[in-house]
Design goal:
With about 475 residues, this protein is an alpha+beta fold. It is built from 16 helices and 18 strands. The chain folds into 4 domains: about 5-95, Uridine Diphospho-n-acetylenolpyruvylglucosamine Reductase, domain 2, CATH 3.30.43; about 105-220, 2-Layer Sandwich (Uridine Diphospho-n-acetylenolpyruvylglucosamine Reductase, domain 3), CATH 3.30.465; about 225-345, Alpha-Beta Plaits (2-Layer Sandwich), CATH 3.30.70; about 345-435, Alpha-Beta Plaits, CATH 3.30.70.2740. Bound molecules: flavin-adenine dinucleotide.
């Protein structure tokens, strides 16, 4: 049979599952779904489909399985590794979950929210707050990323230090398998040792093992007091000593500890002049610290001031500004979150989302900075990140005046190789929170080692023998 005929029949059959307005086949309609946020990957798709229910997702998967057509699940399409972007064949469909955006239940006694995969993260935070709860997952893309995408990438963000990553916040999942069956694991239990943990298998699998359609997530009481401060630090060793001091003195009150280098804030100021650093001069490192608690505002403020005093006395910090109100606290956070946007404004850059054990972080930065500067004079190292988690966004922008696309074409591989070799030497990870997608597919075998990589392939083969769920992402079989 000719392939156009197969495609026409397939689209007709899709029409028996979804109404026509939820099946996009015209080029101009599909375009917004074909390129990733960073504009690094562009693919083609036979169709973009928008199911509303888990049943519809299951029917679409069964049809794709019968027709041997592969599926790229897509949420907010804000991922950094091209996981939600189709390949160039034009034979895949994109299954976008944005219509599955119902909040099914808030269980006040269990402190959980059961919601569908297409809920936008910020909407979930707002809904939880209306009910007097905190949903702590928070990241720069929260206005457009979706909970299914957060689960599929096991997203991190700014609150991991206190509340953990998306995996830690999830108690249960509903998933459509590669066979088109619906697995209902929405029990919301905090303890359940009944064999293999299927939930953990699907979290972080980036759409390669199943399509997440709903989840039960943990809620927390809303903190009553929150204090945010920016401090100036001379070097990374002092930043880590400061973290350890806060961990000792403020323990579980510490909810944020973010690091920004002078170069990253310079870039911010260049593209967003309203985001100027309120600290004196231009400190080599600016650290954003947040404390949250259920005690009075006064109690937390006193604790914050006393730890900062100790840090001044121990010469760990050289300046500090405590946000005097919520607007200023939000401005501090916006400064941190706008670095990613400032980089996008500046042009293409080489991203490295890495974790290093805190004990090796100073060595990693000093050695890698020195090697990079020696080999690529004029290079700009835009280093910032979730320091409390040992997670750096060690990004590279070309020397000023050079074309970034051309620079990346020429130096992307050697720069990745250099940085990842340093990561391996420090026993770190080449993907802390962004995942693998298609971006890091090639390097994964070497990084994980052959035993772990073969186990991953065995899992993929067992759960998706036809290889129809997001093929050639994370692991190729
Ligand atoms: C400005 C900005 C800041 C960011 N900050 C952070 C940060 O601090 N921490 C962080 O971890 N990430 C961050 N990210 C990256 C990104 O927002 C996260 O990876 C997010 O979790 C992706 O969600 P999404 O809905 O956009 O998923 P998409 O990009 O649509 O998809 C991501 C992957 O998940 C799969 N997928 C999506 N939905 C489903 C589903 N329902 N079932 C199965 N598979 C699915 C896709 O196939 C793809 O492989 C940031 C991105 C931007 C643009």
């Amino acid at each position: 049979m000719r392939s156009e005929h197969v495609n026409t029949t397939f689209i007709e059959q899709l029409g028996s599952i979804l109404e026509p307005q939820f099946i996009l086949t015209a080029d101009q309609d599909k375009t917004p779904y074909l390129t990733d946020w960073r504009k690094r990957f562009t693919g083609k798709a036979l169709a973009v489909v928008f199911p509303k229910t888990s049943d519809e997702v299951a029917k679409i998967v069964r049809l794709c399985s019968d027709s041997n057509i592969s599926i790229v699940p897509q949420g907010g399409h804000t991922g950094f590794c091209g996981g939600a972007t189709p390949d160039a064949s034009g034979k895949q469909i994109i299954l976008n979950l944005k219509r599955m955006n119902a909040i099914r239940e808030i269980d006040r006694a269990n402190q959980t929210i059961t919601l569908e995969a297409g809920c936008i993260l910020q909407t979930v935070q707002e809904k939880a707050a209306q009910e007097d709860f905190l949903f702590p997952l928070s990241l720069g893309a929260e206005g457009s990323c979706m909970i299914g995408g957060n689960l599929a990438t096991n997203a991190g963000g700014t609150n991991v230090l206190r509340y953990g990553n998306t995996r830690d916040l999830c108690l249960g999942l509903e998933v459509v398998t590669a066979k088109g069956e619906i697995w209902n694991g929405l029990k919301g239990l905090r303890k359940d040792n009944t064999g293999y943990d299927l939930r953990d298998l699907f979290i972080g699998s980036e759409g390669t093992l199943g399509i997440i359609t709903a989840a039960v997530m943990k809620l927390y009481p809303l903190p009553v007091s929150q204090w945010t401060t920016l401090v100036a630090v001379d070097n990374i060793a002092s930043s880590i000593a400061l973290l350890n001091l806060f961990q000792k003195r403020a323990t579980s009150l510490l909810t944020g500890f973010e690091m920004m280098t002078e170069e990253s804030l310079d870039l911010n100021e260049k593209h967003f002049p309203q985001m100027a650093n309120p600290l004196k001069g231009k400190p080599p490192y600016t650290v954003l610290i947040e404390l949250s608690d259920y005690e009075s505002e006064e109690h937390v403020r006193q604790l914050l001031e006393s730890v900062l005093e100790e840090a001044f006395d121990g010469s760990l910090i050289t300046d500090a500004v405590i946000a005097s109100n919520l607007t200023q606290a939000n401005a501090f956070w916006h400064m941190r979150e706008h670095i990613t946007l400032a980089q996008a404004e500046e042009g293409a850059n080489l991203k490295h989302d890495i974790t290093i054990p805190l004990s090796s972080l100073e060595r990693f930065i000093s050695q890698t900075d020195a090697l990079m500067k020696a080999q690529y004079p004029g290079i700009r190292i835009i280093n910032f990140g979730h320091l409390g988690d040992g997670n750096l966004h060690y990004n590279i922008a070309p020397p000023l005046g050079l074309d970034s696309q051309e620079f990346n074409r020429q130096y992307e591989k050697p720069i990745h190789d250099l940085i990842y070799a340093q990561v391996e030497a420090c026993h770190g990870s080449i993907s802390a929170e962004h995942g693998v997608g298609q971006l890091k597919l090639d390097g994964l075998r070497a990084h994980k080692g052959s035993v772990a990589h073969d186990l991953m392939k065995a899992l993929k083969t067992a759960l998706d023998p036809q290889n129809i769920l997001n093929p050639h992402k994370v692991v190729s079989i």
